[in-house]
Amino acid sequence: MMSADQNGLITKVGPKTPGGALMRHYWQPAALVDELEGDRKVVPVRLLSEDLVLFVSGQDENGAKTYGLLRRDCPHRGADLAYGRVEQGGLRCAFHGWKFDADGNCLDTPAEPIGSRLCANIKQPAYKAVAKSGIIWAWMGQGDAPEFPELDCFAAPDTHVFAFKGLWECNWLQALEVGIDPAHASFLHRFFHDEDTKDAYGKQFRAASAGSDLPMTMVLREYDRPIINVENTEYGLRLIALREIDEERTHVRVTNQVFPHGFAIPLSTEMTITQWHVPVDDNNCYWYAIFVSYTKPVEKEKMRAQRMAMHEGPMYRSRRNKSNEYGFDPREQEEETYTGMGFDINVHDQWAVESLGATQDRTREHLGTSDKGIIAYRRMLREQIKRVQEGETPMMVFDKRTRKSVQGPATMDGIGPTRGWELFWMEVDVRRRRNAPWDVPVPADIAEGTAHIVIQD
Ligand SMILES: [Fe+2]
Predict the structure, then answer these.
(1) 348 CA to centre of ligand 1 in angstroms
(2) Would the pTM count as exceeding 0.85?
């Protein structure tokens, strides 16, 4: 249990908070590239409790779009720049035509007398924004922006990544914590019948587990007390969940917390998901996911259509949500699923994290052994907040020299030997990287089979 102050320290992200200071050391997902591909050239963005507008500011030398990210209220009299006119080289306020470039310089105040010098004294707060792997990222910190680490989702070619997002109406930390909780899948995502529907959207636990013909739904349902190993790594945490089936076979699932607010998990033998839980403000967050394929190119149109069918634009709010009880059906809960909320595991997770309240009251919680990933993460988060308070650079901030110091991370889900799983999972991950059609970085300790594993319990 923790005090209300301790809970506030690790959940609040506004500009003047210690947690907000930590978050401003990292690139933050601000929008999907898709959002600025159509007719719309400017979108409002609320990020880390700041109201901003993101717009297409021009093209670089390769013809790729460049972006500007400005404070949302016009510095003239406060009109909403999200309804501004995007022009060559800047964004013009729809109220009196004041124009700003991507750096926040005021270029024009057309209602002022000819020769007016008013512009020279006006500067709109501006942040850097760049597109990478289907997401437009914002740098809201002080000084030079850091480099992106060599994670698979950034190393992969555009043909092999797909990005999507969704709004969850709760604090970012509880959204992240469901992703570092390997035990919940045996309950929250339990299906009472096993059938092979492995290509269907949202049903990733319905496929057979790699290396066997046991349906994953059966493994999760019948082996519901996983042994969870948690290890501190350079990028965050590695979690290895073991479900021992018998003396020969153990189900192994390797997932990762990617600091500060991401995780990297296996989706199938061919794909992983790297997902960030990005604070909109203290009581709302977006999950931003990059799907990475290690085999064939991703079918972007199909993946987008499947997900858009479950979400409403322009907010990317889930069609199943609190207002319609997430589609809860008591008969289904009796006969088909643990939640009665359909077969899309994203909806289950959304209910779980939103039902904790806008910001979970952690003064009332009681953590158990299955929560050890969460306990380890909160410790790491507090340490990194403290580093920033002491004027030091937190973990996962890279420059050109250090950006290759973090790779992968390794993920896998499969049935391996009960004695020897420690090497087995690394071999599975390395084989996938070596066989991939693009140049996938192989983390050195995984390639050598020397990644450290902490066995607890
Ligand atoms: Fe889940």
Answers:
(1) 7
(2) yes
pLDDT tens, N- to C-terminus, the chain (457 residues): 799 999 999 999 999 999 999 999 999 999 999 999 989 999 999 999 999 999 999 999 999 999 999 999 999 999 999 999 999 989 999 999 999 999 999 999 999 999 999 999 999 999 999 999 999 999 999 999 999 999 999 999 999 999 999 999 999 999 999 999 999 999 999 999 987 655 556 666 666 666 677 888 899 999 999 999 999 999 999 999 999 999 999 999 999 999 999 999 999 889 999 999 999 999 999 999 999 999 999 999 999 999 999 999 899 999 999 999 999 999 999 999 999 999 999 999 999 999 999 999 999 999 999 999 999 999 999 999 999 999 999 999 999 999 999 999 999 999 999 999 999 999 999 999 999 999 999 988 898 888 877 665 5
Within a 10 A sphere around the Cβ of 368, how many other Cβ atoms? 9
* Span from the CA of 254 to the centroid of ligand 1 (angstroms): 14
> Does 358 map to a domain?
yes
Closest CA to 41 of 101, 82, 102: 82
> What's the gap in Å between 297 CA and the centre of ligand 1?
26
Kindly report the CATH number assigned to the domain that includes residue 123: 2.102.10.10
Same domain, 325 and 418: yes
- My answer on whether 370 and 405 are in the same domain is yes
Residue 365 structure tokens:
């919680």
* Residues in CB range of 5: below 8 A, 6 or more apart: none
How far away, in angstroms, is 143 Cα from ligand 1 center? 37
Say yes or no: 101 and 233 in one domain.
no
Q: 273 C-alpha to center of ligand 1: Å?
A: 13
Please give the backbone phi and psi of residue 74, each rounded to the nearest 5 degrees, phi first.
Answer: -60, 135
Domain count, the chain: 2
Task: Tell me the residue range of the domain where 106 lies.
Answer: 21-139
Q: Tell me, yes or no, whether 159 and 122 share the same domain.
A: no
Of 139, 162, 190, the residue at which a domain comes to its end is 139
Give which of 151, 148, 126 is closest to 137, Cα–Cα: 148
Residues with CB under 5 A from ligand 1 (ion): 349
> How many A from CA of 123 to the centre of ligand 1?
44
Q: What share of the chain is helix, strand, coil (3-state, %, to 5)?
A: 30, 30, 40
Element spanning 330, H or E: helix 330-335
Contact 123, 130 (CB under 8 A): no
One domain, residues 283 and 365: yes
Centroid of ligand 1 to alpha carbon of 349 (angstroms) = 5
CA of 212 to the centre of ligand 1 (A): 22
For ligand 1, the distance from its centroid to the CA atom of residue 250, given in whole angstroms, is: 21
| Chosen domain end from 106, 139, 172 | 139
